[in-house]
Design brief:
- Strands 4-7-8-1-9 form a five-stranded parallel sheet. Strands 12-14-13 form a three-stranded antiparallel sheet. Strands 2-3 form a two-stranded antiparallel sheet.
- The protein contains 25 helices and 14 strands.
- Helix 15 packs across helix 19.
- The longest helix is centred in the middle third of the chain and has 21 residues.
- It is α/β, with parallel strands linked by helices and 497 residues long.
C-alpha cells in the first residue's frame, strides 16, 4: 500500500519515489488479497453474511466487477458499500486543484494537462485520503444527467470569459468527480430509464461524453448499486441493457437464525450510557422481539414483497429499554429490568415499519402488531414450558397448569405497567402454582428470571386460550377465560377507539 509519510509534493518527487499508477478496481483487488491472506475481515459490524454474501462480494472484487446489491430493506446493502473504502489505499496522489482527482502520472482533464504542460516536474501534488474517494447518490426521479455526468456552466463561462464551446466551462457531475474512487447509486430502479441509459458507456467503455463537447473522459470508477426487488414492479425497473453491464448481482437476505438477529439488534441499538448501565433486557425479551420480526416476515397480513426491516427490531429494542427507563424514573428506582408486559411499549416500533395487505388494513396496524406479539409468545413459550394444548388432551396425566387456571376461576390479576419491582413480584407470588411450575421446568433460572418466567406463563396461557388477557390503559389484566366473555374485549376496544 502507499506510504502515508514523506509523501512527495511535486511531480518530480513522485516519479523519483517509484510510485506506480493502478486502477481503482486493481487497487481493491490487491488490498483484498492482502486481507484474505492475513485472515482479516473485510466488513465490520455486518453479521450473518459470513458464508453467503461476503464470499460473493470478495469474488466480485477479485473479478474487478461492478456490483449490484439486490435485497429487501434493512439488509445492510449501503453499509457494505461504504465499507469497501477500507480496501482502498490510505492515500493517493492527485494533481493539486483538479476537480476530478487527476492522477499526476495519468491525467485526463484539460486542467491537469494544461498545468503539467506549464509547470512540468514542478507540478504540485496533493494526497487524497480514502475517505474522500467515496461518493454516494440516492436515486430519485428528479436526478438529471447533469447531476451525474455534468454540463456547461454559464457562470464559469462568464467568469473565465470563455466561449461555450470551450471544455473548460464544463461543470463536472458526481461520476467524473468520483474518478479513481467508488461511486454508489442507492435504489437504482428509481432512476429514470433515460438517466440509466447515460450510464451505459461508462460501465461498458469506461468513459463519458458530455453533450456538446468532443472530449471523452476515460474515467476510473468502481460502481456499486443497491436495489430492492419490490422496486422492479412498484416504482421502476433496472433496464435490461444496464443490468447486462453490471457484472455481479449479489442477493442479500435477512438473518437466517434468531441468534444472529439478536446480535444485530443489540449491536445496532443506540442507547444512552445511563440506559446501558441501569437497564437490563433479559435474553427472553430479546428472543420475543426477534420472534415478532420473524412472525411478521411470515404473516399473511403483511406485504412480504416490501420486507420487514431489521430496523423494526432495533427500534423495538430501543423502545423496550425506554419503557423500563420511564418506569424506574417514575418509581424512583435505581435500576430496572424488562418484563413481558413491556412489549406493549414497542407497539410504535412495529406499526410504523410494516406495510399491510388488504386483510391487515382491515384489522388495523395496532391489531396486527398485537397479533404478532401473541404469535411470538406462543412460539417461544413451547421452548420453556410444556405445550398447554397437548397438556389438556392428556387425560391420564395431570395438567401442569391446573392449579394456576383454577385460581383464576375466582380471581383476577392486574399487572399495571408502572408497578415497582417489589409490587411486581408480590403480584406474581399471589398466584399459586406459578413459582413451582417455573422451578420444575426451568430449575437453573436466576431469581430475577424466575419472576420473568412466572409472568411469561400467564401470557403463554392466554395465547393458548386458557386465560384471558385484557389490555387496560394502565397495563394488563389476567382473568378466567369464560368470565371475560361477559366483559368487553380490550383488543376490539383498542381498534375502535
Amino acid at each position: 500500500m502507499t506510504k502515508t509519510i514523506n509523501r512527495p509534493d511535486t511531480l518530480k518527487k513522485l516519479k523519483e519515489s517509484g510510485y506506480k499508477s493502478i486502477s481503482v478496481k486493481d487497487e481493491l483487488r490487491r488490498n483484498l488479497i492482502v486481507k484474505l491472506k492475513a485472515g482479516e475481515p473485510v466488513f465490520q459490524e455486518v453479521l450473518g453474511y459470513e458464508h453467503s454474501v461476503f464470499p460473493e462480494v470478495e469474488r466480485a472484487i477479485l473479478s474487478r466487477h461492478n456490483i449490484n446489491f439486490l435485497g429487501l430493506r434493512g439488509q445492510a446493502k449501503t453499509r457494505m458499500a461504504r465499507q469497501l473504502t477500507t480496501l482502498l489505499d490510505e492515500y493517493i496522489p492527485v494533481v493539486r486543484g483538479s476537480d476530478i482527482a487527476d492522477d499526476p502520472l495519468n491525467p485526463i482533464s484539460r486542467y491537469a494537462h494544461d498545468l503539467i504542460a506549464e509547470k512540468g516536474d514542478n507540478t504540485p501534488i496533493d494526497w487524497m485520503h480514502r475517505s474522500e474517494r467515496y461518493t454516494e447518490k440516492l436515486a430519485t426521479p428528479d436526478v438529471t444527467i447533469a447531476d451525474l455526468i455534468g454540463d456547461a456552466d454559464p457562470i464559469k463561462a462568464a467568469n473565465l470569459k470563455l466561449d461555450y464551446s470551450d471544455e473548460r466551462v464544463i461543470h463536472f457531475g458526481l461520476i467524473p468527480r468520483a474518478h479513481r474512487g467508488i461511486f454508489v447509486i442507492n435504489e437504482l430502479p428509481d432512476l429514470q430509464p433515460r438517466i440509466q441509459v447515460a450510464l451505459f458507456n461508462i460501465l461498458q467503455e469506461g468513459d463519458i461524453q458530455i453533450r456538446g463537447f468532443k472530449l471523452r473522459l476515460p474515467l476510473d470508477v468502481m460502481f456499486v448499486f443497491t436495489a430492492n426487488p419490490e422496486d422492479y414492479t412498484n416504482r421502476g425497473a433496472i433496464i435490461t441493457p444496464l443490468k447486462d453491464r453490471i457484472q455481479s448481482q449479489i442477493l442479500t437476505h435477512y438473518p437466517k437464525n434468531i441468534e444472529v438477529s439478536t446480535a444485530i439488534t443489540r449491536q445496532e441499538a443506540r442507547l444512552a450510557e445511563a440506559q446501558k448501565n441501569d437497564i437490563e433486557v433479559p435474553d427472553l425479551i430479546s428472543l420475543l422481539i426477534e420472534q415478532i420480526a420473524i412472525e411478521a416476515r411470515n404473516s399473511e397480513l403483511i406485504d412480504q414483497k416490501s420486507g420487514v426491516s431489521a430496523r423494526l427490531t432495533i427500534s423495538a429494542f430501543e423502545n423496550m429499554v425506554s419503557t423500563v427507563e420511564r418506569r424506574i424514573i417514575k418509581n424512583s428506582e435505581a435500576k430496572g429490568r424488562a418484563r413481558i408486559g413491556d412489549l406493549l411499549g414497542i407497539l410504535p416500533a412495529i406499526t410504523g415499519k410494516v406495510e399491510l395487505v388488504y386483510e391487515g388494513e382491515q384489522e388495523g396496524s395496532r391489531g396486527v402488531a398485537l397479533t404478532l406479539m401473541g404469535k411470538a409468545i406462543r412460539n417461544q413459550f413451547a421452548q420453556f414450558f410444556p405445550d398447554p394444548g397437548l397438556a389438556k388432551k392428556r387425560k391420564n396425566e395431570p395438567n401442569p397448569y391446573d392449579e394456576i387456571t383454577r385460581w383464576f376461576n375466582k380471581h383476577e390479576l392486574d399487572l399495571p405497567a408502572d408497578l415497582t419491582e417489589k409490587e411486581y413480584r408480590k403480584s406474581l407470588n399471589s398466584v399459586p402454582g406459578l413459582e413451582s411450575l417455573v422451578k420444575k421446568y426451568n430449575a437453573k433460572a436466576s431469581e430475577a428470571d424466575k419472576y420473568l418466567l412466572m409472568e411469561f406463563v400467564l401470557h403463554g396461557l392466554s395465547e393458548y386460550s386458557m386465560l384471558s388477557k385484557n389490555i387496560l390503559d394502565e397495563g394488563l389484566s389476567f382473568s378466567d377465560l369464560f368470565r371475560s366473555v361477559f366483559s368487553t374485549d380490550d383488543f376490539e376496544d383498542s381498534e375502535n377507539s
